[in-house]
Q: What sequence folds into this?
């Protein structure tokens, strides 16, 4: 491809595709430059360095993922919304493994605050959890529970880590149902000072 055709958007999209093909950790500036038939130095007019590229891929992937989740949860509430959220999350993680890995990197909080996609992710996630009557700090704890459960399950499934004959989808459905029960019966007031009464 001609150097004149390089743009930041094209480079980020190509890096995301490369991540799905070879793994996010294997995305390098050299590999991306080879894909476009240019020297590494040609990329620096559009991206600062590898960290900048990977952060941009993370934002791209995060936007794609929340678009899927938002479409899945639209018009749903409670257990139905949780199941739709979980299903869209898992589908994206399994279909777009390199992009999904990008969504798991730590990003500078100043950049997060400026990202409409990541703000939207927080709004949708917290919106679902507020329907269970949760407020801070329980909201943050619940987000961490969901994220670690979904991520752990998807990582094990993607690596073939579930060897038992039990259907993986059936186990997923049960896990989501268990999360719903946990959210409905969330332990209350553990963070409050004891009453003098």
A:
């Amino acid at each position: 491809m001609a150097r004149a055709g390089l743009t930041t958007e094209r480079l980020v999209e190509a890096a995301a595709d490369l991540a799905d093909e070879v793994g996010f950790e294997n995305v390098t500036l050299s590999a991306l430059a080879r894909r476009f038939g240019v020297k590494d130095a040609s990329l620096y007019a559009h991206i600062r360095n590898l960290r900048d590229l990977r952060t941009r891929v993370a934002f791209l992937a995060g936007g794609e993922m929340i678009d899927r989740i938002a479409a899945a949860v639209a018009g749903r509430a409670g257990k139905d919304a949780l199941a739709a959220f979980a299903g869209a999350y898992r589908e994206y993680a399994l279909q777009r493994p390199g992009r999904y890995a990008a969504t798991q990197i730590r990003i500078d909080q100043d950049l997060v605050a400026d990202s409409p996609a990541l703000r939207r992710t927080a709004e949708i996630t917290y919106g679902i959890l507020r329907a269970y009557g949760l407020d801070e700090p329980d909201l943050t704890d619940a987000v961490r529970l969901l994220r670690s459960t979904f991520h752990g399950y998807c990582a094990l499934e993607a690596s073939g880590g579930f060897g038992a004959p039990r259907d993986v989808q059936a186990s997923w459905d049960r896990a989501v149902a268990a999360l719903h029960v946990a959210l409905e019966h969330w332990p209350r007031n553990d963070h409050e000072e004891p009453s003098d009464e």
Observations:
- Residues 50-73 form the longest helix (24 residues).
- The CA atoms of residues 8 and 45 lie 9 Å apart.
- The chain has a mean pLDDT of 90.
